[in-house]
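Field: COMPLEX_INPUT
Field: COMPONENT_COUNT = two
Field: RESIDUE_TOTAL = 531
Field: MODE = joint
Values follow.
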Amino acid sequence: MIKHLIDLFDSLLGAIGGHVLEIIEGMGQFAFLIRSTVQWLLRARVEWGQVLRQMLFIGAQSMPVTTMTTFFTGMVLALQSGSSSKHFFNEPLFIGTVVSFSMVMELSPVMTSLVVSGRAGAAIAAELGTMKVTEQVDALYTLGTNPIRYLVIPRVLAFLFVLPVLIVVSDFSGVLGGWVVANAKFRISPNVYWHDIVDNMEIKHFFHGFLKTFVFAFIISFISCYKGISTRGGAQGVGKSTTEAVVYSMVCVLVTDYFVTAILVALGIT
Amino acid sequence: MIEAQGVKKSFGKHHILRGVDLIVETGETLVIIGGSGCGKSTFLKSVIGLIRPQEGSITVDGVDITRLSDEASIAQYRKNFGYLFQEGALFDSLTVWENVIFGLRYLADDIPSSRYRKIAKEKLALVGLKDVEDFMPSELSGGMKKRVALARAIAAEPSYILYDEPTTGLDPIMSDVISDLILDLQKKLKVTSIAVTHDMKSAYKIASRIAMLHEGRVLGVAHPEVIRVSTNPYIRQFVDGLSQGPIQMKLKDYEPEPEPR
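Field: COMPLEX_OUTPUT
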């Protein structure tokens, strides 16, 4: 009986240890990918054609989805804040302020990043994963280039260039969505709505949200590329990598958001 | 000349190469035969530096790839090689001609990009393809993909060509076409080649010499005609394709993908 328990404990410890080692190894490889990317960025010519192609895919093709998402989020915010203030103060107050602050500082960066990680991040992981299992990644080595130079750098740069733009567009679309509801549902004049925003919002509030986008772009692009080029095991492996890329990107964006916000608050950018 | 000495490679507990010694003379085509999982592809990938052996050396024109560690010198070493992947490994997002000239941008800096399309056309003609430049790889048959991949492998005019299962997955006629092409390229380009294959018909046709790999070691190297009449029971069983004999095929073969370097 005791021997059986010891064996069980032993195998449990072994399984946990193996899992921990796997996580540490993964983190090491992820850090190695970031290091190699920086080295190749400094060493070799950037594939600007690839960067543009990726910018089009990540940016232009994601814009309808991200714009619609934040437009409706702005509408919901206006409806909730207007209804609440009407309930407590008998009139809808500061809808513009609530919508703009929430959108610009928090919701637009986070929601846009989540949508883009689900759309472009998943596609990148699937594409690179398929390239890996069909030996296209090895082919890059044999043809004188490198997957980091040809695949990773263009995608990371495209994310860094495009996500901030998407998020600025989302800021406007969210505020616009809020205005539609404020005007149609609560009969608030455009003047009052815009004054609510302009009177209370400063440029630093915009930067609070804008600066986060670079961190999110970094996270999504590297996780998607890492998951893609570390794919193993055929179609099932590609599916696994794609799912993990989306899940890890989303969780990391949400977790990092808190810490970045804390840093920005500490720096007075709030 | 390619000279491999005592090449050993393991993946975890699985010993794939247990000390491979092989010499490929300049201008010859060495065909490596052997069962699945015996380490043929691992050896081929070690030669081009996609896999780093744990022991031994692989020297090509005086440069030992196992000693190279920085990306630049490995890339320089690889400039001498063309590599034909088992499934072609054509880039899905690029057209046929873009695939063919892909390596030129990195391997041959002195060629102006205005000449790329013409070069692609020439290389495609060398492998018997015409008017397919603007096709996407998904629009090609298996045999055409292999030929495009072959055109891509020879585009930068390498001194060495490595073929990983060049006829696998093709019908017998197309297999013979590919074998003829390899022979033809050999004559025209005077390259040194290593081909890994299960296909004995193709092996006899293209080989200058044949090496048999079994359980990570070279069982023997000989002229195709010597292999054809060999009395070695291992070689006999393999070339005759018999299930009974000294080679016991494992039910589950193990030859994992190379780790990134």
